[in-house]
């Protein structure tokens, strides 16, 4: 991680990052710490938080605080926000980053997948924003709220429909909060990243023909040009916070997709339909063994990678995965996504 070339307007400010123990949240925490912020990372897994705090300390020399918190629990989020402000002597920056990724054809899902995505991604963003805003308004430096959306919230992505729905809601929340805080000292920045090499494929949940879903997702999200280096993405996001930007769309592909959907939405929807034909179809609805990733169930990425869902990995699946996901696998090891033992949920 290269040193910051100039003094930052964030130096000395107090920050809270949800979903901060790994991946993009971990990199955002490190970037803020490097700029002189007093950082608290919040996540559900205490072990991941300890490893994440050690990771930041090793790379920046700064000690960050940690809080175990499930962003779906409004009371828990409010408690963490209060504790963070009390411990740090204020609260100036809050980044709502926590989320889940479910990859499967909609025919292999039930309404529970949508409920889970909305509760974690959108509900988590709502809980974080509503708890943080009163504290951010008291910031002497002017509070900064950042919501992490996605290109999947700008247009529906096949086999990522619950995720896209929840991220679209986050985008609307960010725009609305920006409008309603325009006459205050709080700025709201909504970020829509495209594909990033964060190693999140090991934490995502896969349904349908899960091994094949894992193959295309891990390959595409790790392919250079199509995807973005996660550390570079974190730097861009922190710069947007420094400048109090309203909206940031990362990667040329994401910007092009967002513009195209705004100009010719029907054409983009038809193209998405064509793309969906090349993705693994939903398996037959016949009963399948528990944990095989068949219809109605999901399997975490680490299990899909390590064992294969169909009993044995097909040749083409493994070739595709190895071709495109090498950089993503490296990112998983680098950014606290891959740990010994059974994988934990996002």
UniProtKB/TrEMBL annotation:
It comes from the Bacteria. GO terms for molecular function: oxidoreductase activity. Keywords: Oxidoreductase. PROSITE patterns: ADH_SHORT. Signal peptide: none annotated. Residues 13-154 form the Ketoreductase domain. SMART domains: PKS_KR. Residues 316-332 have a biased composition (Basic and acidic residues). Pfam families: adh_short. The keyword Plastid does not apply. Residues 291-309 have a biased composition (Gly residues). Residues 278-346 are annotated as: Disordered. One of its GO terms (cellular component) is membrane. Belongs to the short-chain dehydrogenases/reductases (SDR) family. This is Ketoreductase domain-containing protein.
């Amino acid at each position: 991680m290269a040193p910051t070339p100039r003094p930052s307007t964030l130096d000395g400010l107090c920050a809270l990052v949800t979903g901060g123990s790994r991946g993009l949240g971990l990199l955002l925490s490190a970037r803020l710490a490097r700029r002189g912020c007093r950082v608290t990372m919040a996540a559900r897994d205490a072990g991941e938080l300890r490893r994440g705090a050690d990771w930041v300390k090793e790379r920046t020399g700064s000690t960050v605080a940690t809080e175990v918190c499930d962003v779906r629990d409004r009371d828990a989020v409010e408690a963490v926000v209060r504790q963070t402000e009390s411990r740090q002597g204020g609260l100036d920056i809050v980044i709502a980053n926590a989320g889940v990724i479910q990859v499967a054809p909609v025919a292999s899902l039930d309404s529970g997948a949508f409920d889970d995505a909305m509760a974690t991604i959108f509900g988590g963003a709502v809980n974080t924003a509503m708890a943080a805003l009163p504290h951010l308004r008291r910031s002497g430096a002017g509070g900064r709220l950042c919501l992490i959306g996605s290109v999947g919230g700008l247009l529906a992505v096949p086999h990522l429909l619950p995720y896209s729905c929840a991220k679209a809601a986050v985008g609307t929340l960010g725009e609305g909060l920006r409008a309603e805080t325009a006459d205050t000292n709080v700025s709201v920045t909504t970020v829509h990243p495209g594909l990033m090499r964060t190693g999140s494929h090991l934490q995502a949940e896969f349904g349908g023909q899960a091994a094949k879903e894992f193959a295309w997702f891990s390959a595409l999200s790790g392919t250079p040009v199509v995807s973005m280096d996660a550390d570079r993405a974190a730097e861009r996001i922190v710069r947007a916070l420094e400048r109090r930007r309203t909206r940031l769309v990362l990667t040329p592909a994401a910007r092009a997709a967002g513009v195209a959907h705004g100009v010719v939405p029907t054409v983009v929807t038809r193209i998405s339909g064509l793309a969906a034909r090349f993705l693994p179809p939903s398996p037959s609805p016949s009963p399948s063994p528990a944990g095989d990733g068949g219809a109605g169930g999901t399997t975490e990425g680490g299990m899909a990678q390590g064992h294969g869902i169909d009993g044995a990995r097909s040749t083409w699946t493994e070739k595709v995965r190895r071709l495109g996901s090498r950089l993503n696998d490296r990112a998983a090891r680098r950014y606290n996504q891959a740990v010994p033992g059974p994988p934990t949920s996002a």
